[in-house]
## 1
Amino acid sequence: MRSLALVLLLQALLVGADRCSWNKCPNFNQDKDVLNVHLICHTHDDLGWIKTVDQYYYGSKPELVPVGVQYIFNTVIDELEKDPSRRFSFAETGFLWRWWITHDEPERARLKKLIQNGQIELISGGWVQNDEAASHYIEIIDQMSFGLRELNRTFGECGRPKVAWQIDPFGHSKEFANLASKFGFSALFFARMHYLEKESRISDKSLEFVWDTSEELKTAILTGAFFQDNYGPPPGFCFDTLCGDDPIMDNPMLEDFNVDRKVKLFVDHIKKQANTQRHNHIMLLMGSDFQYTNANTWYTNLDKLIKHVMERANKTVNVFYSTPACYVNAVTKSGVHLNQKKDDFFPYASSNHSYWTGYFTSRPTFKRYIREANGYLQLLKKMDTFAFANGGGSKWFDKLDRATALTQHHDAITGTAKQAVTDDYMKRISIAWDQGTESLYDMVDKITQKSENGTKLPKQQFCRLNETNCDISKKNPNFTVTVFNSYTQPVTRVVRVPIYQQKAQVYDKDGQRILGEVVKSFLTSQLPADGRTPFELHFTATIPPLGFTTFFVISGAKHSKNSRKSEHLKKLKNTTTRWRRDQNNETSVNNGIVELTFDADGFLKSFKDIKSGVSKPLRQEFFFYKGMDNTTDQPTGAYIFRPNGSEPLAVTKNVTLKVVKTNQSIEVRQIFNEWVSQVIRLDGNCSVVFFQWTVGPIPKEAKNPIAKEVISRFTSDLVSNGYFYTDSNGRQMMERKRDTAVTYKYENTEPVAANYYPVTSTIYIQDSKNQLTVCTDRAQGGSSLKDGQIELMVHRRAFHDDHWGVDEPLDEPGRTGKGLVATGTHYLMLGSGDSSKLNQRVLAQQIFHEPLNTFGEFNGSIEEYIKERKTEFTGLLTPLPPHVNVLTLELVKQGVVILRLEHILQNLEDKIRSQPSTVDLKGMFSGFEIVKIDELTLGANEYISSQGPIRVRRRLLEGNTNIEIGPMDIKTFRLEVKPSADY
């Protein structure tokens, strides 16, 4: 009976799939001398840019942009129903979802019918068209999966897009193309590439090519760049109400008959485009930004265009409505041989002085907020799975899923939307974060309860740790600190808690007192003093993988005798020494692993590996580039980085130092000037050097203000020979060479900006012996402009628009209105190349999965708390090797979990671990047992298939829970689970 049900299900899927757009493609002419013109009717709708996402949807604020996306859906549906030959392609799921939830069932049925009869093709399927420079691969996977899941749930088989559609991002990454192939897309299309590469590809007919996206996985994807430098119709054929082109006037009895002229203009364009291709299929885009608000004007004229071209082109041109997937089918059937590509499309330049490398850094605090929110989302998904895999709970963090997906939009995370729109994005995250906190409370309450009748867990809250601000420590002398670790490996860190009392004691999960040290907070004039705590409490915590540990803080007087003291607790000793500049002396600090030396002017001078005894010159400084203003045709701005000269200016010639030593860490606190400060930190038993920088408000002159682009520069003696390496969306490392382009002839028109690349997580240089690595806590622009150097742009402020559409300078007001203050951390490693690759990979993962702290009120006995509550939890019962990571663990419904495992190394990065690894899922996780495993595509919206997109082949792993995973691979599974013995 079960077999019969499966057969019937497969038949239903096959029948339904036969009606999807990619299986109902128009007939094209097989004659190679005939040009088949695929008219792709589409609209590109930004989920926020000049207006907020909801203003764009409803059409409010028409004085900014007179469009409303809801009307696009409505009028396209009306027009498609008039003629079954008409087609349309929709991309952004975030807008489709808004239309769906605001319309009734009869209207929904109309849309669904058009999708299921093949007239509407859903393309790409992500919640947004994400950026490819600043977005982290985990964020990309999440936003794509979130959109794809919504489409599949709503529209079934026809809700599984076959083509990736990235037509507006400002440069394209190799890793996104790799992920696209893993999502199961047959092709990828986009509009923008470096103008010199575009010229080269037009010349050798390689606008379409095969992109080799992973050396490890041997993945590749058919990729097409559009003939024009945009994603709109050819000149003279924009029939939207936003355009100014004449309609087709085809009645000879009326004035201004223009059919002959229009047909000639159209055919001339088709032939020109055909001369740049290797086959006889032409993709012609009919639509652009927010077009089809009145779809009737489009289809009325396109119907006429098809009719008259077919009548007048002497059978040399065949024009028809089509879709991207149908175009791909036709190109594939043509058997054309295409060139291959192995590099990426960064940096993007639209002209010789317009390098789109400023947005790699624009709005740095927003970029960080997005990264923090996505890390928090991973924690929520994992804790939700452990707490409620077998029932109960309420997924209140769907809103955070939507908010983080929304901010991956290529005008959101890039920092290229208007300030008011950016504020709207941040508000959405803030509201969703607070709701997520309620969910987290329920999860932890469920996980930690030792009996069903126990007291409720005290409410948990977050503190603004980057601002040394914590309300709960102000109002409550005693409180709990729960440290969460969403990473697959245990993490040891020094926890820093803002407090108001000068004395405090810390107790661990067992109620034993551990070393806690109070130091004065590093308070500069850059941030407002209100709410900032005068002290920080430091203690060291080791947190288990996929879990958490609770600690107890007792401020002021000693705690009651009910709490136990550790026998090995050393007497607290806090030594604070202040050094000012001394013309004759240098300052050295070390943690037993690394020694740092600072020169008499307060700058870092050298790095010493204490174990090997090798000391290397290493200098770190802050500089700023002056940006071009609007007296030139291309100012620096939100998108564009255009410095006025190739040498930056130092922010100061000397630095004020203060060294704070405790038993657990050493801090070198530096003040460069009134708007730049930094803490360089060495934690105990750690070879990583932390550079916590604070920059801003960047000065604004009263008259003729000058744009400033602030960098942190690291200078070593490594002989890097012009080469440096940057990550691609946090995964593959890309080799870069200064003043060099791989696929076109490099022209040195912008010697700084043209050498900038996106750094999502990691940049490094190396020579035959050593590697200098810097990891970031958010996306930034970076480069190596001289051998031995790494520079990262941390902040920027511009006072003129750069003429690329946002129509607003990048002049963030910050909290006080005087300018934005940005705080962040660079993580530096310097050492032998033998272990550096694995270490940098693990460090980058730890940064993304940075432990989060929640704080709860606590007024009772520690012993009583421990009797009622578990104070430590791990969801990972079987240790994983350091190169295998649980990327996703998400409860999608009761008893069903999505699991993604990844191998974080590339080939040759580690002699031992850059090999396939086998992982046994049996008994791996706490709270549930796996009873069935199916392998899915990366988007978790389709079972792995070897015989086409419809023929379903499940990889059933019943009885065999061993999973083999190779370098750089990500495997996605659907788990059916039941309660385990420990539940």
Note: Residues 1-15, 559-582, 946-956 have pLDDT under 50 and may be disordered.
## 2
Amino acid sequence: MADNRYLGRVHSVRERFGDTLSAHTNELLALFSRFVKQGKGMLQPHQILAEYESVIPEADRQKLKDGVLEDVLKAAQEAIVVPPWVALAIRPRPGVWEYVRVNVSELAVEELSVPEYLQFKEELVDGRLVLKFHGSLSRSQSNFTLELDFEPFNASFPRPSLSKSIGNGVQFLNRHLSSKLFHDKESLYPLLNFLRHHHYNGMSMMLNDRIQSLSALQGALRKAEGHLLSIPQDTPYSEFNHRFQELGLEKGWGDTAERVHETIHLLLDLLEAPDPCTLENFLGRVPMMFNVVILSPHGYFAQANVLGYPDTGGQVIFSTNQLDVSAHPSMCFDLNEGFDVQVVYILDQVRALENEMLLRIKQQGLDITPRILIVTRLLPDAVGTTCGQHLEKVIGTEHTHILRVPFRTEKGIIRKWISRFEVWPYLETYADDVANELARELQATPDLIIGNYSDGNLVASLLAHKLGVTQCTIAHALEKTKYPNSDIYWKNFEDQYHFSCQFTADLIAMNHADFIITSTFQEIAGSKATVGQYESHTAFTLPGLYRVVHGIDVFDPKFNIVSPGADMSIYFSYAEENKRLTALHPEIEELIFSDVENSEHKCVLKDKNKPIIFSMARLDRVKNITGLVEFYGKNPRLKELANLVVVAGDHAKASKDLEEQEEMKKMYRLIEEYKLDGHIRWISAQMNRVRNGELYRFIADKKGVFVQPAFYEAFGLTVVESMTCGLPTFATVHGGPGEIIVHGVSGFHIDPYQGDKAAELLVNFFEKCKEDSGHWEKISNGAIKRIEEKYTWKLYSERLMTLSGVYGFWKYVSNLDRRETKRYLEMFYALKYRNLAQSVPLHSDEEVAANGTK
């Protein structure tokens, strides 16, 4: 299935690369011969550059420094070696890919299409390529392989072209579609129809049948505006409701004359001179969201007593010490981190979302009770949790519940926990059962369905497709990026992880979703040096199963960055003295400063008046707490200026995780090697979120700082927490914190691979604080301001509500529901995913119990 379409400017790269080959034949021959000499295999970016530096002398590298070769090698994400060929996957910028192949024997360069590159890559696994008469590689014509390609369905769909536009989908969509759909009077009729058909449970909203045309709408709005100007601004809607009905206007415009006037004025402006900003503001006021369903099927989802249970944090399934951290910084994080955080994320999310829904419904002048349902799996064998409870109210809410629906087969309900890697054969039946439960519980169709993680996103896709509902996808963590080469070598992982199902489910969900929320840009499209989680699904192959020629486009306007925040009831500024939990100070004092060593804290601080460098994280290689201890210990001046307090690990019990054991030993060794007793306090992991919030503020009282030294951090929740509390924060530049912090304004970026420079940055900060008493407050205030501007749950919920309304509107008035794509997905689901899911063994409760419940 040859494909003549190429990603990016491949032909141009081939030509320029060919010119370089002619100009620097000896250097290129030496380098690529080294690649070929190693035999068939794959080289990662760090290996490509290491070979380049090893083979090419420094003087020659200087000549090549500003040329095409070095640019190509630095942009190469992998090299596939099948002697005498070397193929390169080149990524000149986020979201743009190009492919070339070099024949080392003939010193010839050729461009490759995506299918050709993937076909060549498959040689690493099955070795069935044959040499055709003209010297190129091909696969036997009898070996037909399914190629998945969503690009033709999106060819005419608008999308930005600049990398900086990635993750700002709704802004781009509004600009483009506003100009396209509202270019003349007639094109405004979809907006009129949208408002006329707006209702909830049989109750008309916004407009009634008296309004049949745009001129009638404009006339009614002007009469309504005149009436509103004649009455006090605080007049309740109920007092002019009948007058509005006579004009053809129903409830939903606002709760007071002032609010109604503002909404009417927005619509009049929109009808006169459409623009994207006015459209978004108006849609944000239109009542559209009353029932929200949030899906997170796997694991133990509850509000208490689940820490340490499988798939809910605490059970490490894949140790990051199997990875070369320097080679795969974006892939280095505990596989269960996402699931512990996911539970906290959803519970914080629904509290903020309910508050925003209640506020908007009140401001719209409606008397409707919103409902939010978190749908998860019911576990009859709940082992000390509430996971066997069908309906559980979420603490801190009025109208939000956890709705639990069991997994079942023809033989009955599955009583015990099942690993998230083995849920696939249950999900189709589960989706049907959830649909029935939602109908009973809501007595209405949901207005928005939000999926979480791979299984939740697949169920959300099935439900949204069945019910015709707007769908939002939140991945949290895409497994494909966590396991290097888990696509090309998927068969090696299949018995344990069933990645063929999961990667297929992820492709279906991300292409079916109306919009996708991520916490950071890097989650979508990575950085200059690293590939994004979604971006890794652009093109890949599962040899023997199918090739993904075009899986997802990171430029798609469905992508939106909507960052979460910290729970403001727990994490707030140290300066808010009336809210401070001073009753906790004695135990925090004891935790940090007592002269006693016990199972909760090791080492004693000698000078208790020095400011504190504080860090709190899991004790594993990627979180790099030992790296912080090491660069602190190596810098005598830093030890003079500040104490170090770290919260990590558990002194009270022996860890079963080999990586944590090694990090624990390393901590003790570093403390001994750098004579840190007297300078460091090592505290066991603290699970009390309320006390942790006050702990951040206590450190701020001491004019301390927070350091997050991870090799890679997908988002950086502790960074947001510390900044919310006003604690100056130094955090890794690799991952989300690089976006959260504005260097030198709201905190500081550090590179964990350069600990000496990180230590000097801390030294400079503390010395400047000594010279300038206002410097600490300046950075502290900058941190709080940054959080208030971008990282709060209130902002998150406002944005989520607006996105839901905007995408729902555009689905109604345009082809944004992508019907063609969804028909393609139906076929892919029925003919491929379903068979894969059926190949995953069903477990009896006895087998599940033997394999690992707590």
Note: The two ends are 49 Å apart (CA to CA).
